[in-house]
Amino acid sequence: MDIISELFALADEKYAEFQAKLTPTVDKELFIGVRVPEVRKLAKTIYKAGEYEDFLKDLPHKYYDENMLHGLIISEIKDYDKALEEVDRFLPYVDNWAVCDIMSPKVFKKHKDDLIEQIIRWSKSELVYTSRFGVEMLMSHYLDEDFKAEYLEIPAKVKLDGYYAKMMVAWFYATALAKQWDATLPYIEKQKLEPWTHNKTIQKAKESYRITPEQKEYLQSLKVKKQ
User: Fold this and answer.
1) Which ranges of the chain would DSSP assign to H, the alpha helix?
2) Taking the model in full, what pTM does it have?
3) Would you say 56 and 70 are in contact if contact means Cβ atoms under 8 Å apart?
4) Which pLDDT value is given to residue 225?
């Protein structure tokens, strides 16, 4: 299968322009313009056909859409060790939030005892999108029945200055406030996050329908002046 030809056959020029505006870290000339549902469908087809090995090894890719496809193919892999290997191979090449966030291997749900160790490793990375991916996986898998208060320390230790790393940390704590209010609130009350992330967490939490008006009012009182 000629994957590049398959992607260009699905190109939408206006959508490419739209995606380029949402993803400013990627050169606009590198957007083919394939809509996400179409990329998902293609990823499933390629995975079921078993025609993905060479594509996953052919890094770096040129086009944004190739990277989206890559992340979605990895998400289909049913063997945990194989999925982990491919995630680790791909993460150093991820250069934008959209590709980072779309990659979520389904098999991870079945291996949470081991996955938490990988999340700690990823979150400590000096690469913005590797760290972001680690925090995203923590948010996706460990804020419900597998939650432990100690996991809240993991994002607090992320010290990267990159906007997309800090934004994910804020998103994590806002979600944690919605799902695990009592355990998470001290991180805001005691100002354990740096000022920008602290205030962004409050902003995101106030946008959540899962947080009560009274909780939102209290959070607003905890905003800090940026230093």
Assistant:
1) 3-9, 13-22, 36-49, 53-57, 64-76, 80-90, 97-102, 112-123, 128-141, 153-156, 163-179, 181-189, 195-206, 213-221
2) 0.95
3) yes
4) 83
